[in-house]
């Protein structure tokens, strides 16, 4: 099978699958290019309330396809950064579901997601020092924001792999699940995410990511949306809320 990104939408959750099993789901140049427009399409779909990124089979993503780095890594690295930034900017909650290897560009993608769940036994590594490649500044800053400068330096300086225990302790992942339990937990989490207010989530995501110029925008969105009234009414009536806010066109 040709390397590809595939996706499906079920119960308001889009699942994007990295598929290149012959190379541990390494990302080709074509796959890097395909991710931003796919994310843009899913972002416009009001039926999508959350997104899961995962790998086909028993591994998440072993990074960039090394064969694409011959001569110069810069063009491939530019594609990877564009895909990473598109994922980080996706306006709805994103979850990386990690099994097996999550290395190099795989960590870039996982780190760009809002939440990261991993199956016990997964391995994580940031490996440009093995290849003499300068890791992008934006990716480095994102890694530092997750794990702190000391762990980021360890990962970048050594290019060593770390296990799920260390990834959990350092904040690289949010939860570690026993073997066979990852899909169940991801489904449970995404059901929770799609049941919550998209207005709250969208504003919180921008604020948490450091945007400081949209306070007035979100104040106006909250004023004109029905989510607050619905949330309060549902609480008082002891029922589940039905939030209806969608992003303005």
From TrEMBL:
PANTHER family: ENOYL-COA HYDRATASE, POLYKETIDE BIOSYNTHESIS ENOYL-COA HYDRATASE PKSH-RELATED. This is Enoyl-CoA hydratase/carnithine racemase. Gene3D superfamilies: 2-enoyl-CoA Hydratase, Chain A, domain 1, Lyase 2-enoyl-coa Hydratase, Chain A, domain 2. SUPFAM superfamilies: ClpP/crotonase. It comes from Streptomyces murinus. One of its GO terms (molecular function) is catalytic activity. InterPro entries: ClpP/crotonase-like_dom_sf, Enoyl-CoA_hydra/iso, Enoyl-CoA_hydra_C, Enoyl-CoA_Hydratase/Isomerase. It comes from the Bacteria. Belongs to the enoyl-CoA hydratase/isomerase family. Pfam families: ECH_1.
